[in-house]
Amino acid sequence: MQTPPEGRNRLAFETSPYLLQHADNPVDWYPWGDEAFERATREDKPIIVSIGYSSCHWCHVMEHECFEDPEIAAIMNEHFVCVKVDREERPDVDEIYMTAVQMMGVGGGWPLNVFVTPDGVPFFGGTYFPPKTYANRMGWPDLMQRISAAWKEDRSRILEQSSKLVEALRSSSRYAAADDLPEPDLLARTARNLGANFDEKYGGFGGAPKFPPHLALRFLLRHHVRTGDERPLEIVEHTLRRMAAGGIYDQLGGGFHRYSTDERWLVPHFEKMLYDNAQLARAYVEAFQVTGDPEYERVVRETLDYVLREMTEESGGFRSATDADSEGREGVFFVWTEPEIDELLGDGAALFKRAYGIDRAGNFTDVHHPTPPGEPGMNVLHLPTSLEDLARAEGRARDELEDLLAEQRDRLLERRKSRIRPGLDDKVLASWNGLMIAAFAYAGRVLDEPRYLDAAVRAADFVLRELRDGEGRLLRTHRAGESRIRAFLKDHAFLIDACLDLYEATFDLRWLNEARSLADDMNRLFSDEEEGGWYHTAIDAEELLTRSMTPHDGAIPSGNGAATQVMLRLAVLTGEEGYRERADAALRRFAGAMERASRATLGLLIALDERLHEDGEIAIVGPPGEESTRTLLRKIHSEYLPGVALALLDPEGNGAEVESRVPLLHGKTLVDGGPAVYVCRSYACRAPVTSVAGVERALSEHRGRPR
Which pTM value belongs to this model? Predict the structure, then answer.
């Protein structure tokens, strides 16, 4: 290991923005690796594994209060070996220790601080600890003194308890396969369960804090389309509208913050994560397909334009996140006082304040920096009433009001650019880029927006070119010209999905070939060939306490849910039954988990929905650049067709090669010299249609066929 510069620790040599944030701490931090564990063994010390991420507000708080304090750092350095982990770089480490802490009866969250033995076995942990003990919350220094004393005086009990915890961890990844796929009724029961937990007033599910329910919304949209039941659509639309009107949505710059601290979607936790915006853009564009509501299209465009403007590297890759904090304060970049609005907008301020819920008292308080008495409060912009109602109350036409507010928002956005921006985590993660590439590709085809397709192609080119090792193995993270850490299951699964979305948006055979290559790697490296499903880590990965496997979704879908979905998509496009067999094996493996916790396994339930319905295929024949073909494609892309595979044969292009790779296209021809659309199920196709009306009729009849 290199010797760090004066006043810095070993994290100075890392590329992770989160680890680099701690490189100047007086704590003698190590990155995760053999050196730390070897020292702990040599010196017979327990290890502190402290896990977080760059945009985590409470991670910043604990760093400032504890890790920057020389006296507290001295305790850490004397009694422990200290290891810092970026959970976004090492989700495998984070998953094991988060599960362990939850098994100890502690609520999860970050920062995650775990005390482990020199061989990595956890024996105590928690999340945020303050610098001093108060009320019923132990301070970090007091806790460390107690842990150090217990390690020296009562180690046998620690080792006995930790041994039991390791066995529990290993048991948590064991799933006994069922004989059959889950019953179809599970889908309907899950929709009812979601409805029972729905917040009728504000949308979403449950109370505060309230997180964007990406997967639940997409699952319910499917259920509505499958069954014709209006209730799921009502839940989706009410939630999407309330989120878009709330402070969780950046009303000036577009894009969504991480979550709402209240049940109303009003006051957010201000960090912005790439994965949230990818999944929400997809949910809004699918809702636009179902309803035709232009407000959903507006949110999609504003969100993706924000990503292009602020979260895209020159290379094409997508950055990971922005902080909640700037100038040492939470949210200060995004909030406004009433005097600021008055000064900036002059005579037009009254209308803007009414539209966006601004008053002198404010609606946001930074708990670490409360507003002094008598000073104007801070406001999170939101839409307390609909623009239709506001236009009516103001005696204006809706279009006139929208134009005026848009001009005022532009003025505020320009002023906001002069503020100190929140910290940026500019690392490029393979899995999160997969989610965003898929969102851009899907939105590009639905909205007929070439900019979005171009962004998806550039990002995919970058990831598939730069995030590789010398053997062509996919890597997880890239920053400052360096790619590192062998990829995990989600990296492969989300990139396969992105490549398939790119294929169905561009019909460039390259993307289908990339998807198949990545799928072969994923199955070789991660699959359980005996019982089905995929492990989180590769077969040749660093050996941790357990090789975990989970069906449960978190802030992003589970790797097993995503992998099962892409196996089904590949089975349809390639005609290879082996892909479907792997999907079936995973669905049987996790059938019990899906029954026990359906709302926590929605990624797999979406896969089950596709498997049970066998939605079919659409083959298009025609030159993709010609307007006659594009007209038919625009009609197809405007329709919400969950589970339907799309393929195109260009008779003027590499037809023979495409037919050999996509069996669906075998024997498909132009009709009377013009483009044609074949609507099929299990490769049994209806008579080709050649007009928009014909496509509409064929799709309507296709949906009505018995499953």
Answer: 0.96
